[in-house]
Amino acid sequence: MVNVAILGSGEKILQHYETLSRMKDVSVAGIVDLESQMNCVPADGQDLPVRHLEDLRQTETELIEICVPLEKRALYIKQAARMGFHVVCDMPIAASTEETAAVLNECQKNNVQLYPGRSLRFSPAYVDAKQQISNGAIGHPGVIRLASGGQHPGGDANIFLELGLPKVDWLVWTFGDVDHVLAKHVKTQNTAGHSVEYAATILRMADNSIVHMELSWAQTKDSASFELAGDGGMLSYDSSSSHPINVDKRKPLAKGKSSDDILISSKLEHQLRYFSTCLNTNERRVITGKDVLKAMKVVTAIQESASIGKTVYIERGDSK
Fold first, then answer.
1. CATH code assigned to 120-252+259-264+289-313
2. pLDDT tens digit string along 27-82?
3. Where are the domains of the chain?
4. Backbone angles phi, psi at 134, to 5 degrees
5. Which residue, of 11, 107, 179, 243, has the greatest Cβ tally within 10 A?
6. pLDDT(262) > 80
7. How does pLDDT run across 75-126, given as a tens digit for each residue?
């Protein structure tokens, strides 16, 4: 049994509380409501809210879920680490590569585990695609297309970090290192006066495969799709389709573990159950802070490319 506390506000608290309450091997030990709006806490959890992070010392909390805006994540992760709590926090865990490294150093110094959430490594379709690619479904990768979109969140939200970082992390996990990138970014307003953004990035992978990644904040609802093509076949996925996953293979698939269990649980529940297992058993984690830092370096290069309008090389750090 793992005792988990939630730090955040509003609907995020409710969403995570409901998910944790369904898990048999997890107990909610406390809730830090940063806006002090206890009406966001369900009736069966009214005795859980506390006013400050330090108050969790009086509970049996082992792991804290930090559900706050990006600009506050590094601050609270560091505070939790200094108090000896293990942490779950959505990617990105900080607003820059340097700040991400500082957060990881603080966790390491205090001997606490940081579990990055909102990773596509817990998204059923992307986990299934990774497994099929490893089993030879598409042969040698050639041309990869990824797209993700949704409504603009407002404010100074960063489309490359919020939408792009999970995609980049999945690309590196699935296909290996990125060699260089070329990106374009457009930010404007629609006829109704609402902010819209569009970003397109070409990534050349170290294995010479080409990735085209499209990010859009000009839609009314969330969407995601991919087409993964190689010399042995193609995998495609469209979240808006009634049959979202398609496999077009030209070679027999290698035998491997069935992905049925991956496809039946929500992304949030799957990742929380996995983190709980890791904490209890010291199981090797499917994603670490170092993985996030590696993806952040690629995203930083993408942002630089979009800013200067030139190719940026990841390892050498120069642009041409």
1. 3.30.360.10
2. 888 888 887 655 566 666 667 877 788 888 888 899 999 999 999 999 999 999 99
3. 2-117, 120-252+259-264+289-313
4. -60, -30
5. 107
6. no
7. 999 999 999 999 999 999 999 999 999 999 999 999 999 999 999 998 889 9
CB atoms within 10 A of CB 150: 18
Whether this prediction's pTM lies above 0.85 is answered by yes
- Sheet of strand 114-117, all strands in order from the earlier edge strand to the far edge: 49-50, 26-33, 2-8, 63-67, 86-90, 114-117
Q: How many CB atoms lie within 10 A of CB 247?
A: 15
Contact 116, 91 (CB under 8 A): yes
pLDDT single digits (tens) 127-164? 999 999 999 999 999 999 999 999 999 888 999 999 99
The CATH architecture that domain 2-117 belongs to is 3-Layer(aba) Sandwich (3.40)
